[in-house]
Design brief:
mainly alpha; about 85% helix; about 0% strand
């Protein structure tokens, strides 16, 4: 995503930087949109990378085995499976929350790139 944004900035910023700078309100608004889109894209990338640094919370196998032994669930197959299904359901909720966070960050990045590229294109046209 960052490479695509950098490519767009490289291709579209040449006329803006090398050519006449937009002096009118439309040109300044276009540059503000481009900078705002870049900010949203970088913020989304930082949020996306921040998710990877969160520690993975999984069940400790030894603690789980001890807990199931205390409850007598290792001897009863139906109780064991029922307990494991409940634990998997709790883990599924945590994974869904993480995926929603990733989806929001990725969507913000894409919208940021689109706004930035549109602003740069408009600034190049106006300038």
């Amino acid at each position: 995503m960052l490479a695509a944004a950098a490519l767009g900035v490289t291709l579209l910023s040449g006329p803006v930087i090398g050519g006449a700078h937009p002096a009118g309100a439309a040109g300044k608004l276009a540059l503000a949109a481009a900078v705002g889109g870049l900010f949203v894209m970088v913020t989304g990338a930082i949020r996306l990378l921040g998710v990877c640094r969160r520690p993975v919370e999984g069940p400790d196998p030894q603690q789980l085995t001890a807990e199931l032994k205390r409850g007598g669930m290792l001897d009863d197959e139906a109780a064991f499976y029922e307990s494991m299904i409940a634990r998997l359901g709790d883990r599924r909720k945590a994974v869904e929350i993480a995926f929603e966070h990733l989806d929001t960050s990725f969507t913000a990045m894409v919208w940021g790139i689109l706004v930035m590229l549109g602003g740069l294109a408009l600034a190049a046209i106006v300038g």
